[in-house]
Amino acid sequence: VMKEMDRLDNLLPQWVEKSRPESAHGRVATYIPELSKAEWDLLGISVLNADGRYSEAGDTAFSFTLQSISKVFTLILALMDHGEEAVFSKVGKEPTGDNFNSMMKLELIQPAIPFNPLINAGAIVISSLIKGNSVEQKSERILQFFRELAGNDRLVIDHKVYRSERETGHLNRSMAYFLLDKGILEGNVEDVLDVYFRHCSIQVETADLARMALVLAYNGLDPLTGKQLIPRRFVQIAKTFMITCGMYNGSGEFAIGAGMPAKSGVSGGILTFVPGRLGIGVVGPSLNAKGNSIAGVHLIERLSREFDWSMF
Ligand code: GLN
Q: Which residues make up the binding site for substrate (predicted)?
């Protein structure tokens, strides 16, 4: 039998081309003006195994911002900073079924904690929990942590995207002030938002996503360096959220279609993995109605079927 990576090398190029036309049925995000400049028909994928071998196809040589993918790793950092009990006194553990930027359910429960850490409201609360004495220090800690996970010292913030989102992020700002009023957010709201906008604007390529995903696939161990970068329990928590909320209100459909923990972002990135085996990074800026890369979802679902990657 042909090894999985060899089969991927053979199949990926043609499968990327089969999924690429799906982009015509979606739309590039425009609510962050800088994101609207992305080329809509790009599609790229990087798959990485524990030997450090990559299989890649399509448009893998351009960078994009993490956006909501960063939320998985800020959650992990907040858990490492404060532990489970403190973090889950401020955010819940349940999917919402609403859009990622919805405020609908914020008033539903008492205390008024956001339903989960992967919707915007929850991720903003998580940003407020990152340790550090200033916005700069907190952002630098996040960036360093992400660099270590990606094995890439060159990760930086895309300042154009950051400024674009800071100037137009009124909906996020309104949620943050609401949470301040309810006593869930503490400290300077604008500073908390600044930390949030910055980590959403960290620039990566699909190979970086694959490497970060590989660490999750190995329960926090970086198989390429042998270092345990995240305590196993916190990866377990993150993985569970990725299954239940990682693709926003499209998570159920994706769990049935692909059956892999995943996290998407509005720039069109998707980070996913095959537990114990492979880290995967995909990008395709054209999004479906739920805000997930339309061609990216198509590609991952097809690969999952072909390679029997579903956990279920
Ligand atoms: N930075 C984006 C926002 O706050 C992240 C959302 C996303 O990727 N879905 O709206």
A: 68, 120, 165, 172, 196, 248, 266
